[in-house]
């Protein structure tokens, strides 16, 4: 209950007061997040790894998803609380399933005579002896006796059924979020990577060749102080991916096309090659498992 209550806290809603801090938290990777993209609702440039949530009514820093369990977004401010909540609920459900099995097993062992009387109507001889109640039973009789035990102690049986049915879902969610930390992703980013994978399979994605020299990302109608503190970087360390509608390499020499990738002299600096597999694309937000865990459990307060 403590972690559940903590997960209700501010997920990292971006306002005009903390917008600058949010911009400085993560760089744009030019794959999932492009500099200069403006949120039409909040009317400011979206920081990298953020997403606007219509339910919460704002852009969320490092937004993972909007969770119906807690009726709140999971983002930079409460992701660690949400993971601890999943961990605690998974352990609680596991203990509930185990404790129920133990109690009902004791009930069956202690009430063998009652079970023999109940099942003697359908069997020529008693199916339970002095040994463990499950010894020598067929699968049909085994599950029938569990059904009898659940009906006999319906409160414990109901809790056990609920715990057993919900336990795999809780462990599945927890395992998925541990995987996301390992991969340096959020749920929102995993969906974006899935879109890139589909476009790559269709042959529509091109990447700038490494070693093209230092490039400057030209603003698309916004000033540099509104986008990202550092707009220049080595092209070999920052991938630039482009989708094309016809499967042809990007051509910025055509009339009317913008030149978003220029070298320091103002000339087109990038050459493109077709991406054949998502393995060729590096996730720039993956800093290694332990650093990813640290970024989740030691978030920057906006």
From TrEMBL:
It catalyses: L-cysteinyl-[protein] + hexadecanoyl-CoA = S-hexadecanoyl-L-cysteinyl-[protein] + CoA. Keywords: Acyltransferase, Lipoprotein, Membrane, Palmitate, Transferase, Transmembrane, Transmembrane helix. The keyword Transmembrane applies. Pfam families: DHHC. It comes from the Eukaryota. One of its GO terms (molecular function) is protein-cysteine S-palmitoyltransferase activity. It is a multi-pass membrane protein. It is found in: Membrane. Its main location: membrane. GO terms for cellular component: endoplasmic reticulum; Golgi apparatus; membrane. GO terms for biological process: protein targeting to membrane. Its EC number is 2.3.1.225. The DHHC domain is required for palmitoyltransferase activity. This is Palmitoyltransferase.
């Amino acid at each position: 209950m403590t972690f559940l209550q903590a997960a209700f806290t501010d997920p990292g809603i971006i306002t005009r007061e903390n917008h600058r801090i949010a911009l400085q938290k993560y760089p744009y990777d030019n794959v999932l997040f492009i500099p200069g993209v403006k949120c039409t609702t909040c009317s400011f440039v979206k920081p990298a790894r953020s997403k606007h949530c219509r339910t919460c009514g704002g852009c969320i820093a490092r937004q993972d998803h909007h969770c119906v369990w807690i009726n709140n977004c999971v983002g930079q401010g409460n992701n660690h609380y949400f993971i601890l909540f999943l961990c605690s609920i998974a352990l609680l459900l596991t203990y509930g399933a185990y404790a129920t099995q133990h109690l009902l097993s004791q009930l069956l062992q202690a009430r063998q005579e009652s079970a023999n009387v109940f099942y003697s109507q359908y069997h020529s001889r008693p199916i339970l002896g002095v040994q463990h109640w499950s010894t020598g039973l067929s699968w049909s009789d085994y599950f029938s006796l569990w059904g009898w035990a659940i009906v006999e102690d319906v409160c414990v049986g109901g809790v056990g059924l609920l715990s057993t049915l919900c336990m795999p879902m809780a462990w599945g969610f927890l395992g998925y979020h541990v995987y996301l930390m390992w991969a340096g992703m959020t749920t929102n980013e995993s969906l974006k990577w899935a879109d890139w994978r589909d476009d790559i399979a269709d042959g529509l994605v091109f990447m700038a060749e490494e070693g093209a020299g230092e490039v400057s990302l030209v603003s698309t109608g916004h000033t540099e102080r509104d986008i990202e503190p550092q707009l220049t970087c080595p092209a070999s360390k920052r991938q630039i991916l482009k989708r094309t509608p016809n499967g042809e390499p990007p051509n910025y020499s055509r009339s009317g096309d913008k030149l978003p990738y220029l070298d320091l002299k103002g000339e087109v600096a990038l050459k493109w090659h077709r991406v054949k597999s998502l393995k060729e694309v590096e996730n720039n937000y993956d800093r290694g498992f332990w650093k990813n865990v640290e970024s989740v459990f030691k978030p920057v307060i906006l």
